[in-house]
Structures are given as structure tokens and as C-alpha cells.
Amino acid sequence: MEWVLAVLKGLGYGLFLGIMSIGPTFFALIQMGMQGGKSAGLRMAFGIFLSDLLVALACFFGLAEFFITPEFQLGFSAFAAFGILFMGVRGVVVGYRRFLTNLHKPIDHKTNFFQGFFVNLLNPFVLILWVGILGAITVGHDSVTEDKYIILVEMLSILLTVFSLDLGKVYLSDYIGKKLNFRIYYHVSKYIGYVLIAIGVYYMYHFFKLLLPALK
Q1: Sign of the alpha-carbon dihedral angle for 66, 71, 73, 78
Q2: φ and ψ of 142, to 5 deg
Q3: CA angle, 71 as apex, 79 and 23 as ends, to 5°?
Q4: Dist. CA 186–CA 180, nearest whole Å
Q5: Is the distance from CB of 102 to CB of 112 less than 8 angstroms?
Q6: Closest-CA residue to 29 (of 115, 128, 108, 103)
Q7: Residue by residue, what is the 3-state secondary structure of the chain?
Q8: 150 CB contacts (<8 Å, ≥6 apart)?
Q9: CB count, 10 Å around CB of 48?
Q10: More confident residue, 50 or 150
Q11: 103 confidence band (pLDDT: 50, 70, 90)
């Protein structure tokens, strides 16, 4: 019965996270699904899934406390801010002709996977999120050591549920992409670039928020 409850709780957490989480990976996944189609979007979704799995296992095996230290958050926020800002600016400044050229270029299979993997890791709130998730799902268990398999099952249920929702986003974005003409898609792409810039600016704000107390 415990195993069934763990799976059901994982499904509930996963549905909530998949529906409510709107970050850099959400927009990057939608953009890739529209530009590269289902195959490119699926590879990116798999990269996102593996990066989530890596962070979740790192938290499970004892790195959760390290991820929330001010020193780590300070350095990682700066790294994430510059990375996301770079992606956003690159999407905004591209001209229409250059956009059409890029659109018709063959897409590197490895690039899709690693883009999903690293874009997700660039989000510092993914680390904080999994620290919180681990804390939430261990409530009611005697210890992580004694109930580790139950906790792992719940974590994997969360990951697989979020992954399934990401696959749905890929198929939806591929369908929408086929309905748009190039000019509309160009403006959608620029809009996603502006969103990524806004997220990068927020991460930069988070960085300075952590930096100022450290300088005093």
C-alpha cells in the first residue's frame, strides 16, 4: 500500500509542478517544438528530464544543504542570469532574414538534448524546488535512510509525470508551429526572447539581492 500511495502522491506533485512551473525551460521547449518539430522537442524534453533527475538525486544523496548556502546561490544566480540573458538577447536581435536562414538549417540532434539539459540546470530555482520537494515528501517517514526506496519511488513518479507533461507541450507546440506562417512565428520567437530576458533580469536581481548583504 505504501508503494501505491508513493506513486499517487508523486503523480499529484508532478501534475502541480508541470502545470504551474513556467520558467526558461518552458519557453525553450515550446520554441524548440515549434522550430524543430516533435523529434527536436522530444530530445530537448529528455535533456530536461535527465537534468531534473540529476538534481533530484543530488538532493537525495545529501547535497540539498549545499544548494541553499548563500555562497552557492550567489555564484549560481550570476551564472544563470548571464546564461538566460544571452539566450534571450540572441533571440531578440536576430533579423527576419537571418531568422529564416536559421529556421531552415538542419538541427543538430546533440544540440537539442544538451540545450534542454543545460537550460534547465541554469535555473537556480530548480535546485531550490527539489530541495523543497525532498523536504515535503520525507514528511511522515521515519528517516530518509529507512524509507529511501519509498521516497525514491515518489521522486521518480514526480519526474515521470513532469516529463509526460513536457511531451504534451512538445506535441502541442509542433501542432501550433505548423499552423503559423513564418512572419507570425518570427514575432512569437522574439516574444519568447523578451520573456527570457525578463527572467534573466530577475535572476540578476536575485544575484544582487544576495551580493549586497555579503559586501556589508
Answers
A1: negative
A2: -60, -45
A3: 40
A4: 10
A5: no
A6: 115
A7: CHHHHHHHHHHHHHHHHHHHCCCHHHHHHHHHHHHHHHHHHHHHHHHHHHHHHHHHHHHHHHHHHHHCCHHHHHHHHHHHHHHHHHHHHHHHHCCHHHHHHHHCCCCCHHHHHHHHHHHHHCCHHHHHHHHHHHHHHCCCCCCCCCCHHHHHHHHHHHHHHHHHHHHHHHHHHHHHHHHCCHHHHHHHHHHHHHHHHHHHHHHHHHHHHHHHHHHC
A8: 2, 3, 6, 141
A9: 26
A10: 50
A11: low
Q: What total number of domains does the chain contain?
A: 1
Cα separation, 200 vs 206, in Å, equals 10
The string of pLDDT tens digits covering residues 23-49 is 667 777 777 776 767 787 888 888 888
Whether 19 shows a pLDDT value over 70: the answer reads no
| Cα–Cα dist 29/38, whole Å | 11
Contact (Cβ atoms closer than 8 angstroms) between residue 61 and residue 204? no
Give the pLDDT band of residue 2 (cuts 50, 70, 90).
low
- The residue range of the domain holding 189 is 2-215
Task: Tell which wins on pLDDT, 129 or 57.
Answer: 57
Joined grid coordinates for residue 22: 513556467
- CA–centroid distance for 43 within its chain: 14
